[in-house]
Records
---
Amino acid sequence: MAGLVVSSLSLSHFRSHRVLRLNFDGRPVAISGTNGAGKTNILEAVSLLSPGRGLRGAPGEEFIRRPEELGWKIAADIAGPGGLHRIETWAEPGGARQVRLDEKASTQVALGQVMRVLWLVPAMDRLWLEGAEGRRKFLDRMALSFFPDHAEAALAYEKAMRQRNRLFRDEVRDPHWYGALEARMAGTGAILDANRNAVLARLAMAQAGAVSAFPRGDLSLTHPEAWAGDLAAALAANRRRDMAAGRALIGPHRADLEAIYADKGVPVALCSTGEQKALLISLILANARALAAETGFAPVLLLDEVAAHLDAGRRAALYDEICALGAQALMTGTDASLFDSLDGRAQTLIVATEGGQSRVEQ
């Protein structure tokens, strides 16, 4: 199976990297170095070749390299099912993020048609223990990998919901204003729910058909307060309660992702930390397999410090599955020995700090 490939990556004044130029051959990339050297910054730059704020969810101002505080820029060449593409994204201090695709001004949404990226970072380790918002974001990132217009639907839904909440704060009583916004929430909300459920179906199929060293999770989409029939009618009926609360109490924005550890039949939140991490890896791999089956190309995987949580056997199994998938996976670790079982199947980078900036040996 072929994979989507970032063949070159250039950074300018991005985080700890003043200037960086890397070339890749499509194999997995093992990136080692001490904490704070700038390993994750490379993964974050690749994540910004897709729509959104990247793997750390940071605002653009945080990407600026200090102390220079100049504009930052990322440029990359991509090879995939649509052929060769050039992506550039940048921002000046205080300015909005700009995107150029194949030498033409473009939008972040358009990047989703070219670049499919999945990631797993240490901040996600508590996904099953914290609030529903993080799990919704996790599910929506997976949905975005299949449906590039998912982000537009989510933004439109959030905008209509915020406007409706503002009417509550302003004590507006005209039902026509509410009706128009509730219809918009219902339309975009239906897209969100449909995409989310479609992703869960794809993941279930990808897990069922795989031979993997990682556990299977049975996933479901739940709502704390379900509604019957059309969401617009339910929002209208719930208007008085929502006005008292100052916000919408029903809708896709309150959905949660529930997971059962299939081998044990218990909620993942009750499993050990190691089991929870293994399931997260399993879901990322299932997402990648499902995308590869649908598009013919495996997505790019960004796995930050993932090897540190696995024993030697699980590390070897993860690398074997990545290589079998044909995915270009960029992986970080503090010790190069964590990648020994790749045994020549990967490119290696060593990141160090020198004179206050990151330096990469390729």
---
Amino acid sequence: MSDSQGRTPSAVTFHGSWIDFAKIALPNVLLTLVTLGIYRFWATTRERNYLWSKTRFIDEPLEWTGTGMELFIGFIMVLFLLGVPFAILQLVAQGMIFQGQVAIAAILVITMVLAIYYLTGVAYFRTLRYRLSRTYWRGIRGGSDDQGLTYGFSYIWKNFAAAIPLFLLYPWASISLWNERWNLMSFGPYRFESNARWTDLMKRYLLFYLVPFLIFAGIFIAGVSAGMSGGGGGNPFDSAGGIAAFTLIIVGVLAMYILVPIAALMYYSKFFRVAVGGLRLGDLEFEFKARSPDWILYWLGNIAIMGLAYGFAFAPFSAFVFASPEQFAQKIEAGETFMTAGFIISALIAIIPLAFAASIIRYRAWKFFAVHMEAYGEVNLDHLTQSETEVSSHGEGLLDAFDVGAM
């Protein structure tokens, strides 16, 4: 199927508007604030209902069927089944340290760290499984019968193995885990197949890996050369060479904050092209078309949005301080508390632009992935039957606990 100019239309399209999304996001922020965070589970559901419904695959919209109550139950389960025991173990470990039983306390701490790392891996797996099971297309959903418990162990040992050679095997670990995760997922009657190759990432990863070392080496060599050219004796910064060396250090620090993120985005861009490109579902093949400039522009937009949000967030505090600067200074000198009614109100108002900006960034993330996602092949609707995988009764509790995602 082609358009009037002979181009094949994209299989994945997005028809949302950030203005329409903002009409959902702003009430969500306000309701979450007045309910002290409880409403955020239902806010997440409202956002996903909009984003999924505005995303079409082969001219059919997606549908999100998850509920806020599922997410809330998942959070409560993690809070009581994991949060409370970990808090108790932490107190026990501190008590043993005070009693001089340092070795036993160290074992407890290491055990907790490994357990958290293991559950983080399980969270990645179960979150993806949950999202597939709640995503419908033509009445068909995805999912997995695997609980992700074995994947949690893979997450531990593969990341530790990648770290042993100074993190040089990180591309192997990330692609291997990606393949393992997706190979256990399905949609309808079809199993996903993921055969991405980690060796395709090594050039980009080595570039990202070496950039900090190259910058430090450049700063050192240029600084020494410039310092020596300024002559000996006295303060080196009194000479032209010393001033040049100091300038080079400043330039090097700025280069670190600019070049390292760019190198990271270049690797991230390659990772998604390789990972998605190795994904199959029946006769469908997938491609992620975003290149490095697309990622850089995307993140610059996010930084600009957060910059504006912080500007609006600090405005109430500025008004609070500059309304009576002498009185404010006197309170500081006297050591009086900041927790006045005006300060508390200003803090609550400051949360609104930051939370709203975070919602807009989530919208941009979904749109970015939808716009740059492509699929090729055929879908046999006669063979497309409902998935028989298990459907969990609760949501992304581990995701909320460890703040991880499964995109």
---
Amino acid sequence: MSVMSTTCKPAAITTAGLTKSYGDKPVLEGLDLTIPEGSVYALLGPNGAGKTTTVEILTTLIDGDGGTATVGGHDVARGGAAVRDLIGLTGQFAAVDGLLSAAENLQLMADLCHLPKAEGRRRAARLLERFELTEAAGKPSSAYSGGMRRKLDLAMSLIGDPRIIFLDEPTTGLDPRSRRTMWEIIRSLVADEGVTIFLTTQYLEEADQLADRIGVLHEGRLVAEGTSDELKAMIHGGHISLRFNSTAELQRAAAQFASITRDDEELTLQIPSDGTVATLRAVLDVLDAAGATPASLSLHTPDLDDVFLALTGADKKQEITR
């Protein structure tokens, strides 16, 4: 996760009461966001939650029905041209012309950004080097791997030197190595150039690794928002799992705790825990005094998977602190 402080920075993106419906189906129902400059914001949500619709409104591809949204200080409804001058967009599917090479795709984007020819070539060469595409620069992009096409797609969105970049599920379909390469590129954009990243993703690890703040969107509403640690703290369910060598030791251990989950067949005991070292030490001290030494133990703390499942209603067993 990015460690860059976002305290007191001006907002790069804001929405207030943003709504959107298609026919009688509401997609966004009063979305409120404030995203500081030079930060990474990840919007999580299941399919149909409204993530892509949010990106499309903020990038002026579609209009919202109600509420307001600003990007770089410009109202997206009234200042669309100014917004488009500030942003870059990488969608779910690579917008790469397979008949053109990487160099030609980049030059085409430079022309669309109305860059002088020399400046366009300079930026294209710099991006090819940065994204490790120089050796393949002259080959048709249809011959590229999925990871190379996604890198080229992101490079194309950067040709205009945007200050705010929208990445709509940018690593969908990539193998783990290519995904991590993209993560490093995204981190460097923020750390080295101070850009703002608005990221939608279904990969919870991706949000955990990259985002300063995370919003969870469910059925068009923002149901939670905070840092990764803040969101995890909302979910109860952490526990210490202990395995014993004998039934006698399991019984002695179980007798020491009021709230447990016991499995006599597996000789395991689960004890609720807040995940701290102090709690673990206290549990082990109690077991030692009772003469019940575990053969092994593991510590489980809620992760973003637990948060996502609980907040989107997929896991009714989780308890949420609001």
---
Amino acid sequence: MNTSLVCDIGGTNSRFACFQQEGNKLLLESATAIKTNDFASFEELLNALKEKGGQFDVQQHRKLVLAIPGPVTPADLLSFPNIKWTISKSKLKKLYPNTEISVINDFTAQAYGCLTAAVDNALPLISLEQTRDDLAIVGAGTGLGHGTLKKTANGGYLHLPSEAGHIPFPFVTDDFEQRFRFFIVQQTGLAHPVGDNVVSGRGLAMLHQFITGKLLSPSEVAAELAAQSETTQWFAKFYARDCRNYALTTLAGGGKLFISGGVAIKNPFLVDNDAFRNEFLQGSDTAQDVLAHIAVSLIQDERIGLFGAACYASQQPAC
């Protein structure tokens, strides 16, 4: 039994996949998705998953990797924003004693996914020749995620989990931005809006509401936008600013920055535009020297987290 069951838990959907490892190759055998909040507990969700077929029964696999949308702490009980249930690591190990269980941050999984075939069809946004193998990833979905892999001297990778989506968002003194910041404060009750409030599906919806007065869901907003829409242009600038700041923080020697997350994967025009590119490349002379050595690409495969979790399972012991 040389198979792994991997899970990429999101605020809206939880994706699962079975992978077979043959030598250095990861073979995707089957995949499915379940609405995250349709269940009262994670155990109930796993039972519903099992009903989709024996290949999704945890007990049938040597390894289970859970990519979770939050920090992985020493605490036994893990809770997450936007999800009504928790995960008990000790309870899972009692339920599945013969399966090696690992818990990693969802953007650690996405970062490892950048080492797999999931990025083969990534769309170049800023193309530069690279001399370093360090990589970072930023993704807006229900929330805003970040992750980094640093190449080590022995040829492996050190993963650096991040909760940068909870850093106060760097609005500038522009009148529009300050009025939008105050609008977010009014809508959320937060004194200091963070990246999660701005560069995310709900951030896109709030921005569009601020500009047009329309109260729509993120998908409804995206459906009525075009590349030159005012909402698109501002969202692209905010997304690029977050990407630039994270790239400067993690890729000072150059490398590759990948963009993922359902917001941009489903709507590439939100980042594939000059507003994004111009904002990303702004900064001091030193910042521009660093950014000149960072290539930026948009991932187009929403299974990136699943491939990454499988990649992690293939080279890591259980935690």
